[in-house]
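=== Discrete structure encoding ===
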Amino acid sequence: MLRFKFTLAFALVVSLFALVGAGQAQNKSLKKIRVGVPSVSVANIIIFVTQEAKLFEKHGLDAEVITMNGSGISSKALIGGSIDIAPIATPTVINADLAGADMAILAHTMPGVFTL
């Protein structure tokens, strides 16, 4: 009987810590970011899947997805600070950098693309 009471008390304490931890995780504020999407197409579907699956929130981000009209406009918005991140075409990034912008490619979703 003593063993049962000890096990029950231990389970209650573990449950209490789990509930308190879950409550604190929900109170954590999300970092606001603006994600520019150059076009609504299969090439950019990853942004919409991420939004629908709430993966931005899972990783602490409150993402506002903004649809734009092409990589040129998206790159200008990125350079101007209107958006924080965007899946922009590699040639657009290279041309912007050659013109003096400070853009970088962090990752690419298209197979076979190689950029330095």
Notes: The radius of gyration is 22 Å.
